[in-house]
Specification:
Blueprint (H helix, E strand, L loop, with lengths): L2 H35 L5 E14 L9 E13 L4 E9 L3 E10 L2 E2 L4 E6 L5 E4 L2 E9 L5 E10 L7 E3 L6 E10 L3 E8 L7 E6 L5 E10 L11 H4 L2 E11 L2 E4 L4 H12 L9 H9 L5 H15 L1 E2 L1 E3 L10 H7 L1 E2 L1 H14 L3 E7 L18 E8 L2 E5 L19 E6 L2 E6 L9 E10 L4 E9 L1 H12 L6 H10 L5 E9 L8 E9 L3 E4 L2 E4 L20 E2 L4 E10 L4 E5 L4 E4 L3 E10 L2 E10 L3 E2 L4 H16 L2 E5 L2
Parallel strand pairs: 1-11, 7-18, 17-19, 25-32
Antiparallel strand pairs: 1-2, 2-9, 3-8, 4-5, 4-9, 6-8, 10-15, 11-14, 12-15, 13-14, 15-16, 20-21, 20-23, 21-22, 23-24, 25-26, 26-28, 27-28, 29-30, 30-38, 31-37, 32-36, 33-38, 34-35, 35-36
Helix pairs in contact: 4-7, 5-7, 6-7
């Protein structure tokens, strides 16, 4: 090599090192700025571009004709030295990950690792959903990793929605759909209001319609306890494939609920129920039932009590119910299998029972949207004596004619031969969930003693029955005690009696006597008394760190009355103030009534809408703070002699 060539090589190397050094400095500056914006995050995605292409396959059934390819390319910067970044992408029997790779400065990252794990969880017997968890190791702050993932959907009907958010911050998110002329496709935009989403639409040189959405500065979406379903709050796009035109022939895909029901109906027709083992079971269960409704109850309650609910999500099995005889033989099933068994048993007994699909209140959709995204549950619908009943055997201890909160006021798609019926599960009055507490406390000048009756109905009653059913026998007495003393060591419960634990159609009633310790404190000639030991919703204020809205399990209707009897040689010097807060979503009412030698404490709490959105946290927290002030205040008695 001559001297000129050596000098040229040295200059090139120096130039490369200079550029690399300058780029690295810029990357560190970028990371430092982002660290101030996201102090709790390890990484930030600088850019995320996802492109969706659609293909038509020949010689396939019409259900599987159109496929989808998803190409995702993200540039992710580290905000720390020597950090690890883990993320997950999913696939199942209706999709696959064709490739995944990572690059640093255009060089393939040899330290990039990934592993596949079947998704599992409580009550999930089997799921074909697989997690591909991948790991990126960053040496220093400002390092940028380029990650590319290619995913393939075997059928467009399983490609249902696209969200902008992820578990990490994203500076720029671009979603681009390439729609060929032969495909009629609707992109339904949900929750776009309040978000600065830029939409572009044009036809490229190949005649492909391009629809592009861009959203910048996206905060991370975190999974938190009791979060409102993301379909209520996050912007997303629902994919609605209407039809294809192939060889001048137009074929419908899922253009309407008619098409959706046809596919569901096709799966139902493939179930293959057999009554050989179901018949004798029904005869045995209903032999002592004098009335027709008693037979229905016997069947409905038997499925609740004897079939264990487990989730089964395995390709078509995630939509197609298991055979009734198989569910009976196994004594377990998912919602579809349990609904099918319940329906088949009712049919054998001579009743008009049908399968029905619905979406629980976790989903913010109804049947105006023709897509499998609308459904996440199946029940049995019974028409009996001119009235329609919605039977959900997955809900343990649900009495006949009552409905779980999660399916109330939800649309239902009911099978009706080759046609269908759309109906709505009735919404029950909030009084159904009444929890009534009545206590009478006597102060003898030194100690507080009393008696109480607490009655549980509706959802709180079912919650207790479920808790008792999963509690070990030797621990049930402790659970019962907790319902009476709230794990408060200053309450000694005596002479207790509990009824209703063995009959789902009756309320649960707790009758007991009690002694209160350290709740009457003297200071000179004054006595300070606390008579509200429950303090409902005292800890239901929400931290600024919480990212998502909060979903209370069910509508709340608590009524409390406490009577405090006072000795003749005392007078009432002070009671906490009354309060009444009433909105369309909740009501809090506390009142102290002064009578001769007694104080009557009344408290009513109604949570009419159990969805508490993040935008309402400030107002909610202010209300809870006012309630806490009253809880912290005390009744003051003063000696008169």
């Amino acid at each position: 090599m001559n001297k000129l060539s050596v000098n040229a090589l040295l200059i090139a190397n120096l130039f490369f090192c200079s550029v690399f050094s300058q780029n690295k400095e810029n990357q560190i500056l970028t990371a430092e700025k982002l660290k101030k914006l996201y102090p709790e995050e390890k990484v930030v995605c600088l850019s995320s571009k996802v492109v969706y292409d659609f293909s038509i396959l020949k010689r396939q059934s019409i259900d599987e004709t159109v496929t989808t390819t998803e190409n995702c390319h993200e540039e992710i910067i580290s905000l720390k030295d020597k950090s690890e970044f883990f993320n997950t992408t999913f696939y199942d029997n209706s999709s696959k990950i064709k490739s995944i790779s990572a690059y640093t400065n255009k060089t393939k990252d040899k330290n990039f690792l990934y592993n596949d794990f079947l998704y599992g969880g409580e009550n999930i017997h089997y799921s074909d959903l697989t997690q591909r968890i991948y790991r990126v190791f960053y040496k220093s702050m400002g390092d940028i990793e380029s990650i590319k993932i290619k995913k393939y959907y075997y059928s467009i009907k399983y490609f249902t929605s696209v969200y902008f958010h992820n578990s990490y911050p994203i500076q720029e998110r671009l979603l681009e759909f390439h729609i060929p002329a032969w495909l009629e496709l609707e992109l339904l935009e949900k929750n776009f209001d309040g978000w600065e989403i830029k939409k572009e639409q044009f036809t490229n040189e190949d005649g492909i319609k391009v629809v592009r959405y861009t959203l910048n500065n996206i905060n991370p979406y975190k999974n938190e306890l009791s979060s409102i379903g993301r379909s209520y709050v996050l912007p997303h796009i629902i994919i609605l494939p209407k039809s294809i035109t192939y060889k001048k022939k137009k074929t419908s895909l899922i253009a309407s609920i008619d098409d959706l029901y046809k596919w569901y109906r096709k799966l139902v027709n493939q179930i293959g129920n057999s009554d050989e083992t179901i018949n004798p079971l029904v005869q045995k269960i209903t032999k002592d039932s004098a009335e027709e409704q008693d037979k229905i109850k016997a069947i409905f309650y038997w499925v609740q009590d004897n079939i264990r609910y487990i989730a089964i999500e395995d390709g078509i099995a995630g939509f197609k119910p298991e055979k009734a005889q198989a569910v009976y033989a196994n004594l377990y099933g998912d919602c579809k299998g349990m609904a099918n068994l319940c329906c088949e048993m009712l049919k054998v007994a001579g009743f008009d029972a049908r399968l029905a699909w619905l979406g629980t209140d976790y989903l913010n959709y109804d049947y105006s949207i023709p897509s499998i995204i609308v459904d996440n549950h199946m029940i049995c619908v019974l028409d009996f004596n001119g009235k329609r009943y919605f039977l959900d055997p997955t809900e343990k201890y649900m009495e006949f004619g009552k409905y779980a909160e999660r399916i109330q006021n939800r649309q239902v798609l009911i099978e009706n031969g080759d046609s269908y019926i759309i109906d709505t599960v009735p919404e029950e009055n909030i009084s159904t969930n009444l929890k009534s507490t009545v206590k009478e406390i006597t102060f003898d000048g030194q100690y507080l003693k009393g008696k109480a009756k607490i009655i549980y109905n509706g959802e709180p009653k079912r919650a207790i029955l479920n808790e008792f059913s999963t509690t070990k026998q030797n621990e049930k007495s402790e659970l019962a005690l907790f319902l009476m003393n709230y794990d408060e060591k200053n309450i000694n419960v005596i002479n207790q009696n509990i009824s209703g634990l063995d009959n789902r159609e009756l309320p649960i009633e707790l009758d007991f006597e009690f002694e209160l310790f350290n709740q009457a404190k003297s200071f000179e000639d004054e006595i300070y008394i606390n008579i509200d030991m429950e303090k409902d919703f005292e800890y239901y204020d929400f931290s600024e760190k919480r990212k998502n809205g909060y979903k209370i399990p069910y509508r709340v209707n608590n009524e409390t009355q406490v009577i405090l009897n006072i000795p003749l040689n005392f007078k009432i010097a002070h009671v906490p103030k009354n309060i009444e807060i009433k909105t369309e979503n909740y009501e809090f009412f506390i009142k102290y009534i002064l009578e001769e030698n007694k104080v009557v404490y009344l408290k009513t709490i109604k949570i009419i809408n159990p969805f508490i959105y993040k935008k309402d946290f400030e107002k909610w927290n202010t209300m809870i703070l006012e309630i806490k002030k009253i809880y912290d205040d005390q009744i003051i008695l003063k000696k008169t002699s």
